[in-house]
Amino acid sequence: MAEAGQAGRGRRDRRDRGDVPGWVMVTVMTAALVVALMAVAVPQLRDVFTNAIDSVVGNG
User: Fold this and answer.
1) Is it the case that residue 45 has pLDDT exceeding 70?
2) Cα 31 from chain centroid?
């Protein structure tokens, strides 16, 4: 009886594994998109922050 349960579990685990290479590709592409967006956004966000601080302090 225990052997039948283990055999069934093994088949289910293989079926539930999913498309691992596809998920890896989605993860890598998402990370690349975040890096690309950050390359554009960080300098502009830094300028916005600097301008806001300068306007509060009175340097601008």
Assistant:
1) yes
2) 5
N-term to C-term CA, the chain: 79
The 10s digit of each residue's pLDDT in 22-42 is: 899 999 999 999 999 999 999
Where are the chain's structural domains? 19-60
**Whether pLDDT at 60 is above 60:** no
**How far does CA 49 lie from the centroid of its chain?**
25
Helix boundaries (H) for the chain? 2-16, 20-57
Residues in Cβ contact with 48 at an 8 Å cutoff, skipping those fewer than 6 apart: none
